[in-house]
Amino acid sequence: MTNRASVNVRRATVADARAIAEINVAGWRAAYRGIIPDDFLDGIPIAAREIALQSRLQRDAGDGAPAWIAEREGLAIGFVSSGPPRDEDVPPPAAEVYAIYVVPGEWRGGAGKALLTTAVDHWLERGAETLVLWVLEANSGGRAFYEAVGWSWDGHRQQLDFGGFTTPELRYGRSR
Questions:
Q1: In whole angstroms, what is the distance from residue 9 CA to residue 7 CA?
Q2: Quick one: pLDDT band at residue 36, thresholds 50, 70, 90?
Q3: More confident residue, 126 or 4
Q4: pLDDT for position 152
Q5: Count of H helices and E strands in the chain?
Q6: Which strands form 75-83's sheet, in the order they lie side by side?
Q7: 11 CB-near residues (< 8 Å, 6+ apart)
């Protein structure tokens, strides 16, 4: 195994929107190939994601729904976003990890764990008792990652609709 430079995690800013969009699309294409149709994955527009992210990062600049970037040697390699839970059955105080992606060449290099730890610690410091996230049921790599760092399926399942096809996703949780 090669010795990699350490991962630095910092709060994301509006200036990071393009890098996050690129990481997000690369992560989707690698993680969901064979789960989501190729034409859908290949057609994800980075520019549209960037615009949406600029708006979100501008709006959520405070602690309401923070995002973080992982960097290695000054290059953005991953991100995580979080905020209040979207599911009404998650009792407060709680938080949700909305998205976490790392560029495929950096998988298993510590960035994902560093990002998730940063988000979890942020919400625990603010009193969250429960944290949740959604993961595609067929995403065995993602599920194994979450389980390895202490998350587990809480029994909730839903169908994620991509406008013409659906795939099941599972809600994972962890408590303080």
A1: 7
A2: very high
A3: 126
A4: 98
A5: 5, 7
A6: 7-11, 67-72, 75-83, 94-102, 130-136, 166-175, 152-161
A7: 66, 67, 68, 69
Reduce the DSSP state of residue 84 to 3 states and report it.
Answer: coil
How are beta strands 94-102 and 130-136 bridged, if at all? parallel
Continuous H helices in the chain: 17-31, 38-42, 46-59, 111-125, 140-148
Q: What is the mean pLDDT of residues 131-140?
A: 98
Amino acid identity, residue 38?
D
pTM of the model: 0.94
Euclidean distance between CA atoms 78 and 114, whole angstroms: 10
Question: What residues are paired with 7 via a beta bridge?
Answer: 72
Q: d(Cα 104, Cα 107) in Å, to the nearest integer?
A: 5
Question: How much is the average pLDDT of 120-136?
Answer: 97
What are the backbone angles phi and psi of residue 30, rounded to the nearest 5°? -80, -45
